[in-house]
Amino acid sequence: MAKAWWEAEIRILERRKACIDAEQQVLEDGGATWQQVMTLVTDFESNLRGITKTGTHSNATRLDKDKENVPSQEELIRGQLSRMNEIVAELGQHMQLAESKRWNLLICAIGAELEAFKEAHSVLKAIIDGASGGIVEHTLKDPRGAAPK
Fold first, then answer.
1. What is the per-residue DSSP string for 85-115?
2. In a domain, 3, yes or no
3. Is the separation of the CB atoms in 21 and 14 below 8 Å?
4. What CA–CA distance (Å, rounded) separates 114 from 121?
5. pLDDT tens-place string over residues 74-96
């Protein structure tokens, strides 16, 4: 009787260990997916920050004699729009993976990043498409339509 009880306890512990191992693997896989998402987002934000600070790509340094080759701020933002399209597509792929694996926390986190990128894309596109007097004028416009004082 003691032997049967002991064997039953061992089977319970083995099942519990298998469940814990499976959960650990899910955490590792989900963590890797989240790391990829965060790398996409932070790399884009870092590049955009460099563009807004210097007015050029952070990895492109130009001399004064090459000023005609320096892209305008509008061109730089248009380049960011295309990069944002790529990131939205990649985030969508990560979202599909999270949904297929039923990783609810990742679904929420990736979904938030995806929506933020979609909204930021819309805002930048509206600025480029609708700004006749430049980006600064558009952002300073009063929401009621009156020009800033």
1. HHHHHHHHHHHHHHHHHT-HHHHHHHHHHHH
2. no
3. no
4. 11
5. 788 788 888 999 999 999 999 99
Conformational region of residue 146, where left means phi above 0, alpha means psi within -120 to 50, and beta covers everything else:
beta
Q: Which of 138, 44, 133 is nearest to 91 (CA)?
A: 44
Q: How confident is the model at residue 71 (pLDDT cuts 50, 70, 90)?
A: confident
Handedness of CA 41, 43, 46, 50 (dihedral sign): negative
Output phi, psi for 8, to 5 deg: -65, -40
Q: pLDDT category, 109, cuts 50, 70, 90? A: very high
Amino acid at 25: Q
Task: Count up the domains in the chain and report the number.
Answer: 1
- Is residue 79 one of the residues assigned to a domain? yes
